[in-house]
Structure formats: structure tokens, C-alpha cells
Amino acid sequence: MTYDVVALLERMPSDEDVLASLAATGTEHRVRAVSGGMVIQLCDEHEVPLVSIDTPMYIQVPGEPMRQFGAAYADVPTPTWWVEIRAAAHDAGSRLAWRYAEELVVRTGGRIWAPPPAAQNGAEHA
Predict the structure, then answer these.
(1) Whether the Cβ atoms of residue 41 and residue 51 lie closer than 8 Å to each other
(2) Cα-based torsion angle of the residue sequence 40, 111, 11, 36 in order, rounded to the nearest 10 degrees
(3) pTM of this prediction?
(4) Hey, what domains does the chain have and what are their CATH numbers?
(5) What's the pLDDT at 79?
(6) By 3-state DSSP, what share of the chain in percent is helix, strand and coil, each rounded to 5?
(7) Alpha-carbon distance 79 to 70, whole Å?
């Protein structure tokens, strides 16, 4: 199972935004690109992926965040940039995913969605 987080951003993240958000997760992780550069992974010292970050998707459909995530997301404007962040379903992975998403939203504006911890096979975020 994975712990999934979605960052709904007000603008396309720049390279600087992505690098700063990666740095916010800590310096002890290795970074690698996979899938032809479409996915960035944070890995442990043994190259085991802890977090996978997809390339941002531009969502133009009005109401799509609400349709996907419920009425609490009705105020998310479209268009929006949608970044999926998947982590190994354990506390360390979920904390990394959440920290990356938080920094990205601080830098670009927007909101974070994550299902309740019970829906994530017991993973929790701090």
C-alpha cells in the first residue's frame, strides 16, 4: 500500500520550488529521476524509494477538485496544478510526502489533499 497526497497548486512549480521542497524533506535522502524524468523519487541510503513525486498536471475542468475530493475542495479554483505524491505506507514515508507537499504549497499557493489515516492502511502524517 502507499500513502497518497495530492498538492493542488495555484501555479506551476518552478525548478527552484521543486528543489526547495525536496530540500525541506531533509538532506539524508538520495534523489533520482525515473520514468524518463517524469517521476522524482526520494530514496533511503540503500536506494529504496520512500516517496515518488509525479510531474505536475494542469487541470482546467471547473469543479474537478471538488468532484475528486469532496465539497471541502469546492473553493479550489481551476485551472490548478495537480501534483501526486506517493509514499511507502509507513510513518517515515508519509511524513516525507506531507513535508514535500507542505513546502510546495507554501511556495506556490494552493491546498493539500490526503485521505484520512484509516483509509491509508494506518499511515499517519505529522
Answers:
(1) yes
(2) 20
(3) 0.86
(4) 2-116 (3.30.310)
(5) 94
(6) 35, 30, 35
(7) 17
